[in-house]
UniProtKB/TrEMBL annotation:
Upper lineage: Eukaryota, Metazoa, Chordata, Craniata, Vertebrata
Keyword annotations from UniProtKB, A to Z: Membrane, Transmembrane, Transmembrane helix
Source species: Hucho hucho (huchen)
Protein name: Transmembrane channel-like protein
Molecular function as annotated in GO: mechanosensitive monoatomic ion channel activity
Domain of life: Eukaryota
Membrane-spanning ranges: 91-108
InterPro entries xrefs: TMC
GO cellular component: plasma membrane
Length: 164
C-alpha cells in the first residue's frame, strides 16, 4: 500500500516517468546498436543467398555502392570522397559523438540552471507576498494609532470599556 501512493507534488510523477524512460531506452538503444554494429562489421554473410552473398562483410556493400556511384555519375565524386573520409574514418565518428555528448551535457546544464532560477524566483514571489502582507498589517496598525478619536468612537469605546 505504501508503494502505490501518488506523489505529493504532481511534477514528480512526470519527472519519474522521464527517468524511467531514460533508463529503459538508453540501454536498449545501446544494446541494439552494438548488435547491429557487430553484425555489420564482423559476421560473414551467407554465400548461398541474400543481398550480401558475394561480400566478406555487410559493411562492404556501402563501399561498393559508393564506388559504383562514382563510376556511373562523375558529378557525385564528392560523395565518394566524403564517404571515404567521413563515414569510414573512426576519428570523425568519435569526434562527432564527442561533440554530440558535449551539446547534450551543456543542454542539461542549461535546463538545470533554469530550474534553479525558477525555484528561486518562486521563492522570491512567496517572500514578496509575505512582505506585502506584513507591510499592510503594519500600515493598518499605524493608521489605527494615528487616527484621531471621533466623538462617536469615544462613546462607543467608553461603552465597551464599561461593559468589559
Amino acid at each position: 500500500m505504501m508503494n502505490c501512493q501518488s506523489p505529493r507534488k504532481p511534477y514528480r510523477a512526470s519527472q519519474m516517468s522521464t527517468i524511467f524512460i531514460t533508463l529503459l531506452c538508453c540501454p536498449s538503444f545501446l544494446g541494439a546498436a552494438v548488435c547491429v554494429s557487430y553484425t555489420m562489421w564482423s559476421i560473414r554473410p551467407s554465400e548461398s543467398c541474400g543481398p550480401f552473398r558475394s561480400l566478406s562483410t555487410m559493411f562492404q556493400s556501402g563501399k561498393l555502392w559508393v564506388k559504383e556511384l562514382e563510376t556511373h555519375n562523375p558529378n557525385l565524386a564528392w560523395l565518394a570522397y566524403a564517404h571515404s573520409y567521413i563515414v569510414e574514418n573512426p576519428l570523425f565518428l568519435f569526434l562527432g559523438a564527442g561533440i554530440f555528448l558535449i551539446v547534450i551535457y551543456f543542454n542539461t546544464q542549461v535546463v538545470d540552471g533554469q530550474r534553479k532560477i525558477i525555484s528561486l524566483l518562486q521563492e522570491q514571489i512567496e517572500n514578496e507576498g509575505e512582505d506585502k502582507k506584513f507591510l499592510i498589517t503594519r500600515l493598518q496598525a499605524i493608521h489605527q494609532q494615528k487616527r484621531p478619536l471621533s466623538p462617536h468612537r469615544l462613546t462607543s469605546q467608553a461603552s465597551q470599556d464599561s461593559n468589559g
